[in-house]
Design a protein that fits this description.
Its cofactor is [4Fe-4S] cluster. The chain has 210 residues and is mainly alpha-helical. Helices cover 61% and strands 0% of the residues. It is built from 13 helices and no strands. The longest helix has 17 residues.
């Protein structure tokens, strides 16, 4: 699958923001239930306000933070989630302290933060801390089920473990495969898929069923 997706879409080079690990963490929260183009607008607002810093975010009124991240949608909810993340981040001593932790410990701590679920936490682990953790999303379930790689009984953790056991541990491969799956899910393997445009069509039971 990896080689076929790479041939169709080319290297993706994710994470698509260049502001360092903390910006990646912020982006991982803001991208919940929205497109990345909206996240870019919110991050731009934070840059313009010189507020892309954990201490600054914690020091400003939550209503002000919500207005800055308004383009990302669900901005009142996400403002609270960002502040939860920042309290943990500051309390843990910042990035240099956190990067020394074992991956399992770090993942448990991330998932203990209110508003950080498995997908967001694994985004942070893979793209901010460069840990070999595969990120599963709705596109992954859809593509893997349609191609017959998995049955419908998998949950997030079992699918993540299944991929990692076959490809890992490999940060670069996990990064690129996740990005390619998102691109393919957006452009080709949609809810109503464009099967004629798909490199995987000859290996896809969904296409063959048609």
């Amino acid at each position: 699958m990896f080689s076929w997706l790479l041939r169709q879409h080319g290297p993706q080079g994710w994470w698509p923001c260049q502001g360092g690990p903390f910006e990646v963490m912020v982006g991982a929260v803001l991208t919940q239930n929205t497109a990345w183009v909206n996240v870019e607008k919110a991050i731009h607002n934070l840059h313009q306000a010189e507020a892309l810093d954990a201490g600054t975010i914690l020091g400003m009124p939550e209503t002000r933070l919500a207005q800055l991240i308004r383009p990302s949608g669900y901005y009142n909810i996400k403002a609270g989630r960002l502040r939860n993340l920042c309290r943990w981040y500051v309390g843990a001593g910042g990035f240099e302290r956190l990067r020394q932790q074992d991956t399992g410990v770090l993942r448990r701590e991330l998932l203990s933060i209110k508003g950080v679920g498995p997908e967001t936490g694994d985004d942070i682990l893979l793209y901010a801390f460069h840990r070999p953790v595969f990120v599963v999303d709705a596109y992954t379930f859809r593509l893997f089920e349609r191609t017959g790689l998995i049955d419908s009984g998998h949950d997030y953790e079992s699918l993540r473990a299944w991929v990692e056991s076959r490809l890992g541990p490999d940060v670069k491969t996990f990064n690129e495969l996740h990005a390619l799956i998102v691109r393919h899910g957006n452009r080709v393997c949609r809810p109503r898929p464009l099967c004629d445009d798909c490199e995987l069509r000859s290996h896809c039971r969904y296409n063959q069923a048609d």
